[in-house]
């Protein structure tokens, strides 16, 4: 009942994929006694990006309450691509953390090929569905948020990207790492993984033996 919990938020540029398609981490992590909760959300263009951010906050609130009720030994979040943006926005919301007692169980975050500066998407085809106005790009970009409230939480943050990610994804990962490292000073890690691309870096979680699953399991078990 007190198992550690990993919450996984899928990518898809806020307009594709689902929690049903993204259940692949659950079984391999279950075999390592880690409970996985895959979070879904409504997709663009049917809802706006601010609404998707609110849906993730609501889902996280539910999971924090569940973790508190079950006495979980630790909570973790992982987000891929646009899911990385959604998890990072959750981290930046100081009011959310203060209003949810179960948030004290949060131990670590894994941000995988995330999107941290939305200004670079506004004038691309990605925005055809998202329909993000230019003036919303900075407020919805984790790269311009504040994270000093995390200093007292001893939170571990892993920022991961793939060698064969686009230059923009790798650049944004490095920039977000620099931002968090300057604020938190420790427990922030950056790794660019060889021989993987934007999709394989997370899809390998479906396998029983892969670097990402091993990293998650190692971090969780080390700090139980």
Automatic annotation (TrEMBL):
A Pfam match: Abhydrolase_3
Span of domain Alpha/beta hydrolase fold-3: 6-121
Keyword field contains Hydrolase: yes
Protein name: (apollo) hypothetical protein
UniProt-listed InterPro entries: AB_hydrolase_3, GDXG_lipolytic_enzyme
Transmembrane segment boundaries: none
Record has Magnesium as a keyword: no
Keyword annotations from UniProtKB, A to Z: Hydrolase
GO molecular function per UniProt: arylformamidase activity
PANTHER family for this protein: AB HYDROLASE SUPERFAMILY PROTEIN C4A8.06C, KYNURENINE FORMAMIDASE
